[in-house]
Amino acid sequence: MILYGRYLSPFVRRVACWLNLQGRPFELHELAATDPNDLPKLKAVNPVARVPALVLDDGVTLTECFAICDWLDETAPEKRLIPADGLARRDCLQRIAIASATTDKAVALVYDKNRRPEEFHWPQWQERLIGQITGGLGQIEASLPAEGFFGGSAPNGADIATAALHDFLISTNPFLIEASFPKLGAHAARANTLEEISSTRPA
Question: How far apart are alpha carbons 203 and 200 in whole angstroms?
């Protein structure tokens, strides 16, 4: 399989971690949706020019993080990273949902604060995004276990989404997270002790 994107994208990284934890070999083709030079190649894989995109061994291309991970779980039921049913599934999906929503706002902040020329910054919009991000982080912080993972002794999909969010913020806007969410930092550190996760950590 071929995974398109860069590990700086927390959504690409989630898919890579999922593949690693399920023991599925893949090649990473580093394309950035923000790089004009990469756009033609990316559009050839995904006409919407978004990452991640996963090209399967039969040539079929899957897009969008959650859809890709759902297929990976469906085709490896013995290695599922989201429980199959019941309250455990509901809780895992809700934890992924809050991590995803917070990640979306973190990405939006990067576009407005980190990439847009300063004279075009919109302070009120950034303030709103920061409020949404810290709100999401607070909810995650309150729900994290003191030890181990949401998945128990091994990480599940919620752990991957949470660690990817933390490391994305550290790489892009660390002021949002440093010294403010200690349980989240400790959780990400535990996750990154695993080679399947640490090998995808953005530089």
Answer: 9
Q: What's the confidence (pLDDT) of residue 178?
A: 81
In the DSSP assignment, the letter for residue 111 is I
The torsion angles phi and psi of 3, rounded to 5 degrees, stand at -105, 125
Structure tokens of 116? 């847009």
Nearby residues of 43 by Cβ (< 8 Å), 6 or more positions away = 49
How far apart (Å, rounded) are the C-alpha atoms in residues 191 and 185?
A: 10
Q: How far, in whole angstroms, is CA 56 from its chain's centroid?
A: 20
Tell if the pTM clears 0.85, that is, is over it: yes
* Cα–Cα distance for residue pair 89/6, rounded to 1 Å: 29
Cβ contact 165:102 at 8 Å: yes
Q: How far apart are CA 84 and CA 80, in angstroms?
A: 8
Angle at which helix 182-191 crosses helix 157-172, to 10 degrees, equals 110
Question: In whole angstroms, what separates CA 19 from the centre of its chain?
Answer: 13
Q: How many CB atoms lie within 10 A of CB 83?
A: 17
Residue type, 134: T
* DSSP H/E element including 62: strand 61-63
Q: Write the single-letter amino acid at 179.
A: A
Q: Which residues of the chain have pLDDT under 50?
A: none
Residue recorded with tokens 């640490």: 198
Burial of 156 (C-beta count, 10 Å sphere; 0-12/13-18/19+): buried
